[in-house]
Each structure stands twice: as C-alpha cells, then as structure tokens.
UniProtKB/TrEMBL annotation:
One record GO biological process: lipid A biosynthetic process
Role description: Catalyzes the N-acylation of UDP-3-O-acylglucosamine using 3-hydroxyacyl-ACP as the acyl donor. Is involved in the biosynthesis of lipid A, a phosphorylated glycolipid that anchors the lipopolysaccharide to the outer membrane of the cell.
Enzyme superclass (EC): transferase
Pathway(s) per entry: Bacterial outer membrane biogenesis; LPS lipid A biosynthesis
Catalysed reaction, written as an equation: a UDP-3-O-[(3R)-3-hydroxyacyl]-alpha-D-glucosamine + a (3R)-hydroxyacyl-[ACP] = a UDP-2-N,3-O-bis[(3R)-3-hydroxyacyl]-alpha-D-glucosamine + holo-[ACP] + H(+)
Lineage, broadest ranks: Bacteria, Pseudomonadati, Bacteroidota, Flavobacteriia, Flavobacteriales
Domain UDP-3-O-[3-hydroxymyristoyl] glucosamine N-acyltransferase non-repeat region: 22-89
One GO CC term on file: membrane
Protein name as catalogued: UDP-3-O-acylglucosamine N-acyltransferase
Assembly description: Homotrimer.
C-alpha cells in the first residue's frame, strides 16, 4: 500500500513541511528509516536521529524546532505519539480489509456466513458453523462443526477452533492457537494404565478477547471452559478444562492454569506462572512472574514466589534467602566457639 505525505497528513490532521507528494509505503523506526518509509519522533532522546534519518517523512510535534537542517519531510501534529498510534491502527485496518472466499478452501453447505467475510486459501469450515459479519479467517485455519464466531472476529493462519466452541464479537485468535482440544482427563486403572475420560464440553470466549499465538484452551469435561470479555492472553499459554478467566484479566506468556480453577476480574498474571487446579483466585490479584500458586487467593492480593505468598513478605524474606550461606557460616562459627 502506498500513500502520499499529504494523504497521511489529512488522516492525522497535520501540516506538511516539505514535499507533499512523496510516496510512502512502509513504517519504520527513526533510527532505521529508509527511503519510502514513514517514522515519528516523540521521545527527546531520539532527536539526534532526525538529522540523519533516511526516512522519507517523520511525524513530529507542532512545537518541534530543529537545531540544524533537516533533510526529511515533516508532518507536524499536536501529539506525534498519539498520531503514530492512530496511523498504526489505520494501517492495521487497511491490512485487514480483505473480503471474499479464496480457493482452494472448504466450506460445508450447512455453514452460514455473514456479510463481508474473508476466508483464506486452504481454510476448512465444518457443518452448521455460524460466522458473523466482517469475520476474517486466514489461510489454513480450521473451524470445526457447530462453531459460532461473532461479528468482526479474526482467526489468523493455522489456528484451530474445534467443534461446538463459541467465539464472541471482536475476538482475535492468533496463529497456531488450538481452541477446544480435549482436556487432560484420565482415570487410573488397577493395572497401572490409564483410561481416557471423554471431554464432552466446549470453550466459550466472550467479546473483545485476544488469544496469543500457540496458546491452547481446552474444552471442558462437562459444561464450558470460559474466557470472559476483555481478557488478554499472551503467547504460549495453557488454559485447562473447566477453567474460568475473569473479565479484563491479563496473562503473560508460558503461564499454565490447571483444571477447574476460577480466576477473577482484572487480575494481572506474569509470565511462567503455574496455577494448580480447583482453586479460586479473587478479583484484582497481581501474581508476579514464575510464581507457583497452590491455594485460594483473596481479592486485591499481590503475591510472588513458589509457593507464592504476599509480595511484600516475599521481598523481605528474600533478603534472608540470599544471605543464608553467610548466616549458616556465622552459626557454625558461633557453635565452634
């Protein structure tokens, strides 16, 4: 996609200082700018780069006053950071503007597709699927039987939404995700082997949820695994069967939540956190990275460690943890004396 400097300035309600007809085809960091690219300057520490950047145009604040000659075209706006963010959103929307059915792809005759839907090549859409308006299903994705996908949701390449799952409006499922695989359910036999417990439930993902690449959300044994509206899941997260994640909770990469655990609203869970099954975590809880959570957590708590306990207590205890060798030596010396 190509835009002129003036077209960009019109979108951002900015003023052009330089060549209005220059064509721009990409975005770049100011220190890595090249011909045909557009960058921005908001942090003062990056100001020196504007005097030698190769970017064809740079978005700056209206009050920017260069201290030496600037070769690049400037687009002057009220707030360069907000303007560039707006442009990124516009650029993303333009990239996502695809519609139509690419071939080869498979869409079962019983599937119902809304208006302005995009289905990429090699995608599979099964029986009795219901797809809302403006949905984007990128190449090589799999949508299983009886799945429902709400309006303006996006299923990126190679993602799988397996049978009977329900995806809300404006949900983003990133590449490589598996939604609705069997939960980890096995019962032990007297001879030491295990028998599989059928997983007959589904996954429900409510509106405005983002699921990062290669994350997995298992279907329930009975009932539903539920991701409530506004939740944000990073890459490579495992959500087990019958888990419920509360509204607007954010979870960082490589976290695992074991079966039947309930996580409340507005929680903040760091990377590589391990949470055992069948517990309840309250609302507004903060869990620091690499913590191991093995018990119920009250609302408004902030915890760290493995096993995790109060964040302030953990920090105070850490002073002693790291000094244990010195303390042991002092005790040994005292005993000898």
């Amino acid at each position: 996609m190509k835009f002129t400097v003036q077209q960009i300035a019109d979108i951002l309600e900015g003023i052009v200082d330089g060549d209005e007809q220059l064509e721009l085809s990409k975005l770049s960091k100011i220190e890595e700018g090249e011909k045909g690219s557009l960058s921005f300057l908001s942090n003062p520490k990056y100001t020196p780069y504007i005097y030698n950047t190769q970017a064809s145009a740079v978005i700056v604040n209206k009050d920017f006053l260069p201290e030496q000659p600037v070769d690049t075209t400037l687009i002057k706006v009220e707030d360069s950071y907000k303007a560039f963010s707006k442009l990124l959103e516009y650029y993303q929307m333009a990239k996502m503007s695809k519609t139509g059915i690419e071939q080869p792809s498979f869409i079962h005759e019983t599937a119902q597709l809304g208006d302005d839907v995009y289905v990429g090549a090699f995608a599979y859409i099964g029986e009795n699927v219901k797809i809302g308006n403006g949905v984007k299903i990128f190449p090589q994705s799999h949508i299983g039987d009886n799945v429902t996908i709400g309006d303006h949701s996006v299923i990126f390449s190679s993602a799988q939404v397996l049978s009977d799952c329900v995806i809300g409006n404006r949900v983003v499922i990133n590449s490589g995700c598996v939604i609705g695989a069997d939960g980890f359910g096995f019962s032990p036999n007297p001879d030491g082997t295990y028998s599989k417990v059928p997983q007959t439930g589904n996954v429900i993902i409510e509106d405005h949820v983002d699921v990062g690449a290669l994350s997995t959300i298992d279907r329930a044994t009975l009932g539903s695994t539920i991701i409530r509206k506004g939740a944000k899941l990073d890459n490579q997260i495992q959500i087990a069967h019958n888990v419920e994640i509360g509204e607007n909770t954010v979870i960082a990469a490589q976290t695992g939540v074991a079966g039947s655990t309930k996580v409340g609203k507005n929680c903040r869970i760091g990377g590589q956190v391990g949470i055992v099954g069948h517990i309840t975590i309250g609302d507004n809880v903060g869990i620091q990275a690499q913590s191991g959570v093995g018990r119920n957590i009250k609302s408004n708590s902030n915890i760290q460690g493995s096993p995790a306990f109060d964040y302030g207590d953990w920090n105070r205890s850490y002073v002693y943890f790291k000094n244990l060798p010195k303390i042991e030596k002092r005790i040994t010396d005292l005993e000898k004396r």
